[in-house]
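Note to self: keep these together.
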Amino acid sequence: MTAVARAAERFDPSLDDRVPVTVLTGFLGSGKTTLLNRILAELPGERIAVIENEFGEVSVDDSLVHDTEEEILRVNGGCVCCTARGDLVGILEALSRRGDWFDRILVETSGLADPGPVARTLFADDRLRDRLRLDAVVTLVDALHIGEHLVAVGPEGAGNVAAAQIAFADRIVINKTDLVSPARLCELSVQIRAINALAPLMTVRRAAVDLDFLLGVEAFDVSRVAVADPQFLDRTDHAHVHGVGSVGIDLAGEMDPDLVERWLRELLVEQGRDIFRSKGVLSLAGHQTDWFFQGVHTLLDTEWVSTRTPEQPRRSRMVLIGRNLDRAALEAGFKSCLAAGQ
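Structure:
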């Protein structure tokens, strides 16, 4: 069954009772723990499981602390995006089996973690997906130091961690704004928008974030994202910063379902390592509703959605966020998928 066909069999998201998972990421010192403590303090009646990941020599402790509103689990001795990822999956599987006990799960990654593998695990792991849902990846940015972090050179082939954290975000919080001038804050916003033009952005001091901005946003619910944000492409900035940026394409007309699915599959197989996030709303020939997709690296989630009125013209829009994106090649490939006669 093709991805287009599978989308038609998705369940009604309004009936989704899976436990939401929020991933908190951001470079060292950005304020993740401060934000985590704020969330716990402002939701005293909720039953929350917290997974914290720090580097260290202590072995993984997956025991649960009972008789408290929050349960704190620590993944030590490695990073959840690589060496300790199996431990993260094991903990999440244990938590998911107790899903009726928790209102939500918060995962605080190490400041050096690439959130991609974490998001991918939650996004597509069949063992977890039936009981947990990835609500959003939230990235905190240190307003004072992000400039130097973005120009830092990592190990060969690893890329820039700070840029990758921003690129994967569904919500971006620029923290510690009291430590920079208004002019510098404006410059930072432009820099961040050049990396990720899709994620809503908030500026705060001391991680004082409105929780409605972070929690329950269902950023990975494909139908909700498409309907709630039909103009997502309008915010796309095509500039690239330190090799990471976004490319948006908007075409009038209908796409050939077979051609566009084949092109997307080949694109992600060949360049999926460099494509951090993808999102699109496509008008497909032979279908009255539009086909919405979003992806993490090589994985796609899809849904049929209604984002326009019948009198509005048919068009297809797509955004890719990643590194080494060739705009000309992407535009040519996307255009080659237009239905005959377009």
